[in-house]
Predict the 3D structure of the following.
Amino acid sequence: MKRKIVMGVAAAATVVLMFAGCASGSNAGNSAPSVGKPQSGGDLVMARAAEPTSLLPWTPTDNASIWTLEEIYDTLLVPTQDGKSVKSSLATTYKESADKLSWTFDLRHGVKFSNGQELTSADVKFSLDQSRQPNTPFYFIDKIISSIDTPDKYTVVIHTSSPWSPLPADMALYANSIVPNNYAGMSASAFAEKPIGTGPFKLSSWVKGQSLKLVKNSSYWQQKKPYLNSVTFTVVPDSNTRATQIQSNQAQINEFPAYSSISALQSSSTEQVGLFPSSRVDYFVMNNKQTPFDDPNVRLAVAQAVDRKSLIKAVLFGHGTVPHGYMSPALWAYDSSINPPTFNLSAAKATLAKSSHPNGFSTKLLVYSGDVEQEAAAQLIQGSLAKIGIKVTLQTLDPSAAYQAEQTGNYEMGFSYETTDIIDPDEIIRFAGLNTGGSNAMFTSYQNPQLEALADKADTLSSQGDRYKVYSQIQQAINAANPYVLLYYSPSVYSYSNNVHDFHPYPTGNYNLVDTWMSK
């Protein structure tokens, strides 16, 4: 959300340097090299572990949905490729008022939805009014909006209840995608099955559990784009099967190949691997609502028993970095001074002895089937926790069912990860740290009202330095509470056929397949 103020130069350099040591090979960390002029045509197949949960922009929080939605819909603004700022999309210009309580956006003229209907300010108002409903996951992003005016066909004025620095970046959030006014006469549920957007692609078919196909939107406002005729996302949970499908040309892009395959892929003559700078943070999560994880000492003991350096070596084959805090180095609010609990089994035993379960306990660890990294990490953590008296039983579910279990709080321990969708730290500060942030603090249900107030305060400040101080306080508090265990920062890894060009996932996770093309 994966979802402002410009990233500081130091933070941007940190991202580049952090992942520069993670890869070798001429194309590692970069898009596929272009071979001459982009060619139109081609039917791209991307093999993924999971499928979208919804195609209604303001409903899902999972990346399978988010990265699909971003091909169907547009937002007023979009992140730049380097993840440092935002640029125009459906809005050509925007301006903050002198009293800092409103923002005016000028819409691009002549934009049409995939059904041929022209985009107007009424569509923007309707869409933002849906995304800021209290029952939506990203209400926490848009709740600052007090009202929206449409003085004319191409002008939108967004009023806020207080000054709000992240507003431009918020308008690049996928949940703030623009749909036709009143769903073009459909109900919300009917629209979710037959979505209409202004993006480069439109839905052709969706066979639940198998594949989702997008085709070129002939009404797209960027001339001569997209280059591809179609993009099909197939559901292939097993990473070995995805790899085989690339080798046999059943698919051209493998989303998240196994880390164990990176070395072989870097020497392949038929495909390539990209380790792209990413905002990804991986977590070992605990359900703070359930006993014994409602006990801070239990959570701390678990954190002290997880050997992250060994996990990075064994699971990521060295392609990762031990985290300092839950804020990714891709964002300027990252606080490198934070020091999470270090691996120390003796300390973990002593901490557990002070808890409500001094003699240990039994619990279940939820694992996504087909995810070789999770399976390897689960076995290592299972063995480590056993040494301090915590007996762990592995519970394997298919990715969709596992995600649903975490989302509904029907689990004890599990794995999760997040990526930012926008360039401002506000989203991740709230999403991963606050109970009201759309994921219940990464599905842990951890609550701290004081942090909610701090996050609200930070967004009213115009100085990036002042905001950083507040965000640092929040990160330090989360680090002390240990609602989850931070595992590692890692790059976005994709493998793809040599005839795929200009494929470059952003640090925010966006694919932007509008620029991707295939050579014959």
